[in-house]
UniProtKB/TrEMBL annotation:
Membrane topology per record: Lipid-anchor
Name this polypeptide is given: RND transporter
One of the record's GO molecular function terms: efflux transmembrane transporter activity
Family assignment from sequence similarity: Belongs to the outer membrane factor (OMF) (TC 1.B.17) family.
Length: 461
């Protein structure tokens, strides 16, 4: 390190201050991104009103709330995100520490003996060394700001994942109920097919029915047995999926006896302008954009001169007990101002890379914003479509039940062939199964709409 005369050092410091005063912040975020426009209202309708704070409570299902609480506590994906949050907190500590001086203490001792010496000599030394990288351009401050913004983004991500896991758990819970209700429908179909086969077999023995009707009845029984087995497997897999979200062993065994609730009340959808502040995934994307922009500023300031101050003090004695007695034997204090002159474009390339990352994060943010709007719009229109289909299928279920009773009655009187009975049975049970499926689809869409609007919920824990 070269010592600089006082006059020249004062000139350098004055020049450095002038450069600091003339420095400007670097940002690659466009003003249009900072003021992303939102429509005044939802294009596909929606229901006016304030968005609720706890969508989970609207289902009035204590078992569902208990399971969501369990998933929020035990889910492995959530535990990973909590560890990522802890890692981000430590990254902030690291970046903050770079702005402060570093101090090291050293302690040493030696014993020496030579041929010319009369005996053994001892020496002990203690020293303190310090180094401080002065943040004259606020490069270290920008690096700290970037890590703090990344920490805030990770907090938003954790909140987003918590809401996703809660919604997924609720959807899987209703999937289990749907699978169990469809298994009940499959069981009734099998019982009905057995009854129809017995009736046809009795008529065949009495000479009232031909062999074709008997074979058709037997075929229908086997088809329904296969359908029942398939639905049993579907129920096991639905339960296993729910158990995985709860961090339980997926044995496919879980007592859930509830029925699918039928939605009656409309869900208030609020205003589009509220969406960007309600959705944590959008907030995460925005904070990540700000973090990459702060990294760009740090990369720009890395091209400026760096100032380091180094100091040390030490004491040497012949006796260990005298190390802390008296003053220091030697000390030094120096500074170093270093300006990159030639690096074959390395620092410029690093700055351009940082600028490119900002542009990427900016496009990711804008893409997510419009996807968030699309999530709500699609859920709103899907709500109306599912309601129309549900009402139509309820009426179809009533008509198919009446048609089945009439077909059985007319078949026993010999007025229609057995194929009419088979078709009536198929339509009746298909309509019943479809009503169950549509009931669940409406619930799934309602949960998806809650999530698209921000997905706030509260559990017992």
């Amino acid at each position: 390190m070269v010592a600089i005369p006082k006059k020249e050092s004062s000139l350098l410091l004055a020049t450095a201050c002038a450069i600091v005063a003339g420095g400007c912040s670097v940002s690659a975020i466009s003003p249009e991104t900072e003021e992303t426009p939102a429509p005044a209202s939802w294009a596909r309708g929606g229901t006016p009103g304030d968005i609720g704070q706890n969508w989970l409570h609207t289902f009035s299902d204590p078992q569902l709330e208990t399971l969501v609480s369990e998933s929020a506590e035990n889910n492995y994906v959530l535990k990973q995100e909590r560890e990522r949050l802890y890692s981000a907190e430590q990254a902030v500590r690291l970046s903050r520490s770079n702005r402060y001086p570093a101090l090291d203490v050293s302690l040493g001792g030696a014993r020496r003996s030579t041929e010319s010496s009369a005996g053994v000599s001892e020496s002990f030394d203690i020293g303190v060394d310090g180094r401080w990288n002065v943040d004259i351009w606020r490069q270290l401050s920008k690096q700290q700001q970037a890590t703090e913004l990344a920490l805030a983004a990770q907090r938003a991500r954790l909140q987003s994942v918590e809401r996703d896991i809660a919604a997924t758990t609720a959807q899987q819970y209703f999937d289990v109920i749907e699978a169990r209700q469809l298994l009940e429908v499959a069981s009734r179909r099998l019982s009905n097919a057995n009854e129809s086969r017995d009736i046809v077999a009795s008529g065949y023995r009495q000479g009232l029915n031909d062999a074709l009707d008997l074979y058709l009845a037997r075929n229908q029984v086997e088809r329904e047995r296969a359908n029942f087995a398939s639905q049993e497997q579907a129920l096991l897999e639905a339960v296993a999926d729910l158990q995985l979200s709860l961090a339980r062993y997926p044995d496919g065994n879980m007592p859930i006896e509830s029925k699918l609730p039928v939605l009656v009340d409309a869900l208030p959808t609020g205003l589009p302008s509220e969406l960007l502040t309600r959705r944590p995934d959008v907030q995460e994307a925005w904070l990540n954009l700000l973090a990459t922009d702060a990294e760009l500023a740090a990369a720009h300031k890395a091209r400026f001169p760096s100032l380091s101050i180094v100091g040390s003090s030490s004491r040497t004695t012949d006796a260990f007990s005298e190390l802390l007695d008296g003053g220091v034997s030697a000390w030094s204090l120096a500074f170093s101002l270093t300006q990159p002159l030639f690096d074959a474009g390395r620092l410029a390339a690093l700055e351009e890379q940082a600028a490119a990352r900002v542009r990427i994060a900016e496009q990711q943010y804008l893409d997510l914003v419009y996807r968030a709007f699309a999530d709500v719009e699609n859920s709103i229109s899907r709500t109306a479509s599912l309601e129309q289909r549900y009402d139509a299928l309820l009426e179809a279920e009533k008509n198919s039940r009446a048609a089945l009773e009439l077909a059985l009655e007319q078949y026993q009187r010999g007025l229609v062939p057995y194929t009419t009975v088979l078709e009536s049975q198929r339509q009746a049970f298909d309509a019943e199964a479809t009503v169950v499926q549509l009931t669940n689809q409406r619930l799934q869409n309602r949960i998806g709409l809650h999530l698209a609007l921000g997905g706030e919920f509260v559990t017992a824990n």
